[in-house]
């Protein structure tokens, strides 16, 4: 070793820590199966309504993402972006709607109008992660572009209701209209953006704070239990009464949910002096008529004036799906999942590209959020995924026979694998059990000589294991194990898998 040469002992091999980035989740087969099932059933509903599948790329040019456009100093605010070799910024899609707007603007002349499309896949948001808030998650959207008819909004609502029905998910669609809120603010004389935002934020807290809390936030302000003070919107008593009448219009005299027609009557009295509010009521009236024709019940879709959703984005009706299923965390505490999907009318998005207003409406089904809710449901909605049939490997010299049998089993439409580890019989059985395999297949010397197959029904074995307490009795009984001619074996395996 030369005098200045490094000493190999001074160097250690770099070993990265095995960790997942915050806000990005690993998914095993059970969760993947739930998401696939949700998407498959919702997609089937979308197609029954006549919507066309569309797949856009994960990346869009950053300027196509509207208000999430990165600036020169902060290219990753809200989105995950990178600079292309031509110095243009690209970003992973934030949702499925902005790519639709770009696609519609780019291909408008060739598209059937209205253009009805659905899309599903992951979206990415560069936001602070937290409980129930990931940076990568799945959505499944349906949108109609090119019609301003309120009936198009009603159909989107009915579409969402049918998607939740198809997945046996108890939900309610809550519906409001941007025009009603604009009319209310105008009637109140709330002209400053700060005061308008104060009113809307107060309305948005109705579920959490009740009417009394909203009243305080509409006036001088509210102090919470910790002593923190939130400045109010500064409305006078008359204006506060008008807002409280507006948000209370969704309730009947007993405090329950009022029927859609009754809500419209109450809102008409509150907004009698507002032309824009009256136009919003006309939209909701036509939506209500269409929903009745579409078979959407009063329990499945309601008019709720307290829904304040993306008002900088939506231009008319807005809707939000609330999950009614009871969910609990690991400690047994109730978890309120709230919104699991939403949408509304957005008539200005395509115009960003074309300069011409193109009406559009849509709904986004929160696939990952629903899967998370199902994982916490008391019913144990997410079940472990069954593994394949496992062929036990006894002998290196017989591997060809094992693979020939596996090919025959697969040809019959059954999932199967040959065990390819180097463990013994006991460990292989444990492996099959851990995979939740329905059965193991044994092809030893006797079976090969007699052209037979020994099949052990693991499902039956798991059931009988709860009834037999003596190990000797268990070994002698060999529950669920049969030896059959090879010509009959696959039929027996099918009966096990399909039981």
From TrEMBL:
Give the keywords, sorted. Answer: Aminoacyl-tRNA synthetase, ATP-binding, Cytoplasm, Ligase, Nucleotide-binding, Protein biosynthesis
Report the catalytic activity: tRNA(His) + L-histidine + ATP = L-histidyl-tRNA(His) + AMP + diphosphate + H(+)
- Molecular-function GO terms, alphabetical: ATP binding; histidine-tRNA ligase activity
Q: Where is the Aminoacyl-transfer RNA synthetases class-II family profile domain?
A: 34-384
Q: What is its main location?
A: cytoplasm
Where, per UniProt, does this protein localize?
Answer: Cytoplasm
For the biological process aspect of GO, one term held by this record is:
histidyl-tRNA aminoacylation
Ligand binding (L-histidine): 95-97, 125, 139, 143, 309, 313-314
GO terms for cellular component: cytoplasm
Instruction: Write down the EC number.
Output: 6.1.1.21
Q: Which InterPro entries match?
A: aa-tRNA-synth_II, aa-tRNA-synth_II/BPL/LPL, Anticodon-bd, Anticodon-bd_dom_sf, His-tRNA-ligase, HisRS-like_core, HisRS/HisZ, HisRS_anticodon
Question: How far does the signal peptide extend, from start to end residue?
Answer: none
Entry similarity comment: Belongs to the class-II aminoacyl-tRNA synthetase family.
Quaternary data: Homodimer.
What's the protein called, per UniProt? Answer: Histidine--tRNA ligase
Q: From which source organism is this entry? A: Asticcacaulis excentricus (strain ATCC 15261 / DSM 4724 / KCTC 12464 / NCIMB 9791 / VKM B-1370 / CB 48)
Encoding gene, per UniProt annotation: hisS
